[in-house]
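Re: the request from the purification team.
They wanted to know what the chain is likely to look like in 3D before they choose a buffer screen. I agreed to run a prediction and write the result into the notebook, where they can find it.
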Amino acid sequence: MNWSGSSKRIMRQIAKMTVLLGTFLFVKVVVEDFRSGKAGFWSLDLSERVMREKTGSGLVVVSMLLHLEACTCEPKHPLPTGGDGDVGTGGGGR
């Protein structure tokens, strides 16, 4: 069994679920903010609870989207290894 592929698949599923939950929380807080009228959508007044929650859930969504993007990018050119297995020695000479 290939644990490496399995763990990557599980991590992607967790990241996707986190994006969905973070998006749900972000929308919930935006709607709550709109209904209460305490702070505007672009307000940066962090003394309001809804603004702290909106900022936090927005950061979660952005970080998980970046994580998903990083997981999908496979390195096109692996680092060159020397003849003795050292990375970047250019042929094993010291």
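For the purification team: The chain has a mean pLDDT of 76.
Please add any questions underneath this entry.
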